[in-house]
Amino acid sequence: MLILNEQLIQSIYKIEDAIRDVENMLVAIHEGRVENPHRTVLNVPERNGSVLYMPSSDGTSMAATKIVSIFPDNSSANLPTTQGAILLTELKTGKHISLLSASYLTRLRTGALSAISARHLARPDSQVLTVIGTGGMAFEQVLGIVNVLPIQEIYLINRTVEKTYAFSEKLKEAGITAKIHTGVDRNEAVAQSDVICCATRSTEEVFDAHYVKAGTHIIGVGSYLPEMREIPLGAIEKAALIYADDYEGFKTEAGEFIDAVDRGKWLFDQLSGTLAELHVEPVERGGEDITIFKSVGAAHFDLAVAKGVFGKASQINEGEEIVL
Fold first, then answer.
1. 2-105+300-321 — its CATH code?
2. CATH of domain 113-298
3. Strand, coil or helix: what is 47?
4. Per-residue pLDDT for 224 more than 80?
């Protein structure tokens, strides 16, 4: 079994790799070749945390099971808020061939999904990005979005403004050249934005829909439980196009949309489609259209990046081989 740790994976597998591999998976999903059972979520309310178990198969060569824990309060103890592992199994003999650290890969595949959504649903001349929530998930969101759009300005919003300063420095160290703003009112930032990315575990709306300008693309990646909210109801009602990464997960876990349905303000039938459908059969958006992409996460995207990094590591003879 090949062991691939976090440091190695980060050194050899980048956002461009993840975007390519996730796009290939979207095609396989659309062609019906992928098996993706619904995930199991164990909540740990006394620690404000969750543990998720996520199996998937590409139907021909590989299967994967990811276990990921999300404990946002860990940041106060200088510990990772998201931790995980992926077990990769080849389907010829059922042999478990690799164990991979999954924290970075989880963030990276989510960044890739958002990038693909932005490529299809944001205006191609989008220059201003607002990121609401600068925790563990947000960094790869920025990397993905600037990879596909000509972003010139980035607004960073967090309940604790000091965290935006550190996040800004991390972006600069990663080579982000866009002008970065911190300490700005969130709705003032939203009013200037072409793309808004929400990466929080909020249980209430994180901005006022009144400030969203025509033509904006909104991405929600942080909330993944029915009681969570990020995207405001007003934005959902205004949106011309709404896509999700996984339809079944969306119906049971996308809290703001579940709430909109419960309040009689929206119907699941109004979902425009899945990202796989959008990627294979692109739609033409109007210049004034507000668009939304909602991601709750799905195991086949973890499988996509796990296969990708395993293949790359094997090719360059990296990783540690062990016998169980």
1. 3.30.1780.10
2. 3.40.50.720
3. helix
4. no
